[in-house]
Amino acid sequence: MAYFPEGMPAPSPNFDDREFWRHCDDRELRFQCCAACGNARHPPSPVCPKCRSLQAKWQAVQGEGKVFSFTVIHHASHEAVKPNLPYVVAVVTFDDLPGVRLVSNVTDIPPSAVHIGMRVKLWWDEISDGHCLPRFRASGPKNER
Ligand SMILES: [Zn+2]
Fold first, then answer.
1. Per-residue pLDDT tens over the stretch 21-41
2. 34 CA distance to ligand 1 centroid (A)?
3. Do 79 and 21 fall within a single domain?
4. pLDDT number for residue 8
5. How far is the CA of 121 from the centre of ligand 1 (A)?
6. Most C-beta atoms within 10 A of its C-beta, which of 44, 59, 78, 98?
7. Are residues 95 and 35 in the same domain?
């Protein structure tokens, strides 16, 4: 069952990020990296901001990382999120791809227990029609404040 109830709007992939979402549907979290200088970037874009190369590759991450920042949502911005209030929107960084930050949710934990530096692990939320979104749960005893 999806984290948010039916009716939650799904991503609308565009020319730049459709590859990112396609990998998500395959339950692979991959980020765009410059094929010339290796710079990782997210969200995807057609040009490397460091070296201006137009060549890119998609690098997979294992999905383990930590909370860089977060907020607790108490007011519904859409009818579909009301049953989940309050919920956490977090910026997550990854152990194996420094420089990339992903906005997602930390689930299955009271929002008051979430903190910056908290270790998290990826899980795949199948939202509809085989489409999947990356979300995160607390992981392991390595949590640090
Ligand atoms: Zn580059």
1. 999 999 999 999 999 999 999
2. 5
3. no
4. 86
5. 28
6. 44
7. no
